[in-house]
Amino acid sequence: MTAAQQTTDGATLAVTAAYDGSPITELDQNDVAAVTAAMATADALFHDRGQWLALPRRIEILRATAEIMRARFEDLAVQAAREGGKPLIDSRVEIDRAIDGVEGCVEVLRSEGGEVIPMGLNASSAGRVAFTRHEPIGPVVSVSAFNHPMNLIVHQVAPAVATGCPVVVKPAADTPLSGKAFVEILHEAGLPPEWCQLIVTDRIDVAEALVTDPRVAFFSFIGSARVGWMLRAKLAPGARCALEHGGAAPVIVAADADLADSIPRMVKGGFYHAGQVCVSVQRVFAHADIAESLAGEMAAQAGALRVGDPTSADTDVGPLIRPGEVTRVAEWVREATDGGARLLCGGERISETCYAPTVLYDPPADARVSTAEIFGPVVCVTPYTDIDAAIARANGLPYAFQSSVFTRDIDTAMRAYALLESSAVMVNDHTAFRVDWMPFAGLRQSGLGVGGIPHTLNDMRIQKMMVLRSDEL
Q: Domain boundaries in the chain?
């Protein structure tokens, strides 16, 4: 048993079902002493190059990991649905993506080597050849979020294994079981336990001790902007990082959009996982000629979604992660309707943990539903007459992540692509579209760096150059 798997103060973490609060299990919590021991282990591994895992061995481990996950597919999906609240139909997709992500790491290792640096171009470089190869950056610390409890851990841990970095991972306190399962599967697949250590805690001081340890070479964070930027400011000198926060994703719908195609996509993008997705559809700017009919049809489809137990195959929308989030969402919706927004559907608490899918029409520009990430099942539709003005409103927040435009006109699509201030613009698709090998980047307050399996893998390794001089060259 590795240091990070031990607890020294006897505290436990109760893990409960997001839907009804029923107990699932209790886990031993780690304290600051366990963090210190885990980082000492990771640092010692990295600095003893004789212990580094050879590339073929890492590929074997990753392939075996994918096979074990595939064999336990349904159990992993049900576990993720139960602890995190994402409906089973979507949790199955998450596990499938997670397996693909592990296999994607192998694809990167097999296809991306170093590079040749041109030499012999002038007198100074004559008689020389230069090339690079990859080496691990050092100990990695990954702190994850609750909303995709298996796939996010895969994105933050599998690339570290692939690159040969020792990694210490802290899953979200609300959803630690999926992360714990992935770490255990890695060990079962042949990864020596000290190469991937698990920290379980809900204590801020323990998490901060982990992140700010001077031995951290790379810090991977997925979570709120408030916490992410705070932790980044406390990193030790030399530590690199990638931060993935949230946004308030905008959608531009032109008057010529195919509503029969676009509305179901926006409904899916807005209410998937009860809106608890960092690029969830939240702000829809629709041309005034179609805005009311679009909003009405969105409300009809949202109102037909089945809200309930996420472990049921019939459920479309599950709970929010904590009862307090339901209270917060209700407050934001009430503020918007008090300010003049028209409530087209939802707007009510279904249970202690579930909030009805809600569509608001023309909320105030200064309401919180218009200016901040709601992270709940609420979509706002705002009419516009000038597309440039709508894009200016879409760009007017300190968050920038993914956006989309629905139109049948190529020039409208290209104008939106050119003017929207986001890292990705989806044309005729919702803002939450993602495949795990594409770049995934929050801009401004939405994050730092680029996610996606190949990009994270590159973050966790360096290119080490050799320049060889020979009179025979």
A: 3-245+446-467, 249-427
Matching residue, tokens 């408030």: 226
| 65, 91, 161, 191, 325 from 58: Cα distances, Å | 10, 27, 7, 8, 41
What is the pTM for the complete model shown? 0.94
Please list the residues that pair with 464 across neighbouring strands.
133
Contact 58, 162 (CB under 8 A): yes
Helix (H) or strand (E) holding 127: none
Question: Could you tell me which residues come within 8 angstroms of residue 453 by beta carbon, excluding any fewer than 6 positions away?
Answer: 101, 104, 105, 108, 155, 158, 159, 436, 437
Kindly name the residue from 83, 94, 103, 244 that is annotated as catalytic.
244
* Active-site residue, selected from the candidate residues 105, 165, 196, 278: 278
Q: Is 83 assigned a catalytic role?
A: no
- CATH fold of 3-245+446-467: Aldehyde Dehydrogenase; Chain A, domain 1 (3.40.605)
pLDDT, one tens digit per residue, over 352-402 is 999 999 999 999 999 999 999 999 999 999 999 999 999 999 999 999 999
pLDDT in tens, 95-142: 999 999 999 999 999 998 899 999 999 999 999 999 999 999 999 999
Architecture of domain 249-427: 3-Layer(aba) Sandwich (3.40)
What is the DSSP secondary-structure string of 389-406?
A: HHHHHHT-SSEE-EEEEE
